[in-house]
Structure formats: structure tokens, C-alpha cells
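ok so for the tutorial part 2 we go from a plain amino acid sequence to predicted C-alpha cells. step 1 is just haveing the sequence, like this:
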Amino acid sequence: MTTSWYNLAVALGVGLLIGLERERSKGEGPSRRPAGIRTFALASLLGAVAGHLGGVALLAVALAGVIILTALSYFRSHEADHGLTTEIGLLAAPLLGALAMHDPLLAAGLAAAVAVVFAAKAPLHGFVKGALTDAEVRDGLVFAIASLIIWPLLPDRPLGPFDSINPHNVWLLVILMLAIGAAGHAATRLLGARYGLPLAGLAAGFVSSTATIGSMAARVAKDPASLHPAVAGAAFSTCATFLQMAVLLFTTNQPTLLAMAPMLAAGTIVAAAYALAFALRPSASRESQAAEPGRAFNPAAALGLAAMMALILVVSAAMKDRFGEAGVIAVAAVAGIVDTHSAGISVASLVATGGLPAGAAVAPILAAMTTNAAAKIVMAVSLGTRGFALRIVPGVVLSMLAAWTVAAVLLQWV
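step 2 — the prediction. this is what the C-alpha cells look like for a chain of 414 residues:
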């Protein structure tokens, strides 16, 4: 009995919460909207009592009555049409009241969500109608199709020559590049190209530095004025590669991290300094910032990146099939073309099991990072402009050269 009273109280609270917002926005005088705090509270209680006494059948009858009354009220006030939002909320109230009798926490959460949707009318309408462009809406639909329709339908198993291509994983790279492009576009619109692209590049680098460089290259090809901020973003993504490797080695095998720490620190410092050199330069994209915002990403560039990665996978598999796994270094180098972090984790796991000394893990991990850097250079050259490639390639090379130099110096001291 106590539980029923509690559930009924939640049902009443659900109606009062939604009705409170509607009461404040219903207006005054003859043109005011019909449903307010009392109407929503009673509708929610009606649903709760109906569901409690008669189950689904009585709830359906009660809901039909609310629908009829709502329709009559709407047609009486259609000359001053304010839309159907209030009417739909009134239909949801008895359903939420009935839900409160079975799952009060879920009902309360959904009621809060409904109230927020009601209260957010002005900012939502302003964002959709004023902030978003037609091109951005189309790009949002393209991203939804790519991630919610195409990706789940692709087979998640090795296919193709040498069973080297997993379509599910390859398409994930397309989604990542689209998402990174959209993040960079949003950051640019909020902060401007000079600050938005470097921040977006650093954040996206923890997801995929290769995809980030490909996305920045495609952006420069579309908007040459954003060259320096895009180079800074791409260089910051390389910085993120070193930082993420340190975090993964810490969680996998700390002796391997201690052995790799000087090299990772050197690569991070060089990549960060190179990125800052471009981030602090005045951007030539002031005119482009004031212009009409363009597309959020380049689908053709994303597809090209995925096709190139698939080709690299086939070539890597062919090399392994032809020459075999000639040592840990060669295997890690081949794996690093696709994902340097998985190769690093594999080597660190080998150290953890005693199959390899911690000091011997330095060369395989650096080899994986080097081949991954080579893949980044290929992306920059193939997808970007000549100016972008000439500026980002030295940063990638210098960061890896710094890591290898520190490794060589430490090897001489040992």
C-alpha cells in the first residue's frame, strides 16, 4: 500500500513538473493555450490510476479520452495555432503517469526530459534555424547514414586477399574521419580557425592521428586560408600519439613505459613545439571566418582514406605471407602501419609475460611508430595540398627522429 502511494505521488510530480513549464508559457487572455499545470497533473494522475486499476485496457480507454479532449481543444483554438507540442506533451502525461506505477525513476527522468524539451524551444529553434546551414544539415544526414545504417550492416570479419580487410573496421575509419572533420568544423565556428583547429586536432589525435591528419589535409584542400591552423592541428595529433602510447604502456606494463619514457618525452616535446610554432602564427583565414560556413567534412576524402588504408592492409598481409614474421621488430613495424598503439600493447604484453626484456621493447615500438608516421605522411601528401605536405611532413619526421636519437644515445650509454 505504501508503494502505491509513493508511485502515485511520483505520477503527480511528473504532471506538475511538465505542467509547471507549460503554465509559464501558455500566455494570458483569450489567446492563451488550454493546457497548464492543473491539466497536466490531472492527466498524469488519470494515467496512473487507470493503469493501477484496470491495466492496459483501462489505460487505453483513459488515453483515448485524453486524445479526444485534446483534439477538441486544438480545433477550437486552431485560428491561433501555436503548434502541436503542448498537445503531444498532454498525450505523454498519462503514459508517464502509468509508467510511474511500475518504474517511478524512469518516469521521473522522462518527465524531466520532456520539461527540458519544452523549455528549450527558443535556443533549439534559434540553433536549427539560425546557426545551422543547409550544408551542415545535409552533412549531419550523411554522417547518420554512414554510422547508423551502413556501418552496422558491414561484415565484421576478415575478407579479401589474404583475409586482410575487415570491412567493419575499415568503415569505422571513414566514420572517424567524418567525426573529426565535423569536430574541427564546429571548433572553427566557435573559436575561429586559429584556435579551433589546433584544439580539435589534439583531441582527435587520441582517437586516430592518421585520420586527423587526413581530415586536416582535406580541409586545407577545401580552404587554403586555414593552412597554418590545420598544420598545427595535425602536428598536435602527432603529439597525442606519443601521449596515448605512454598511457597505454602504463596500463599494460610499467617497465616497458620506463624504458620508452625518454623517447616518448622527446617525441612529445618536438611535436608540441612544432605545433605551437604554427598555432601562434597569425591566421590568413580571417576572410574565410566571416564568410558563409561551408561543409562540415569531405566525404570523398574520407572514402579515399579508407581505400588507401585497405590497400596498405593488403600490401602488409602480402609481405607477411611472402617473407614470414621475421622477428618482433618486423611484425611490429607491419602492424604499426595500421595501428601503432595495438603494436605497442602487443610488445608490452610480451614483456609482461617474460618473453622479451623491457629494454628490447624499445626498437619494436619505435619501429611501429615509424611505420605509422610513414602512413601519416602518405595521407598528408595524397589528400592535402603541396603546401600542407611541405609543412606537416617535417614535423612528423622530426618528432620520430628525436625519439630515435634519444634511443641511440641511451644505447651508447648502456
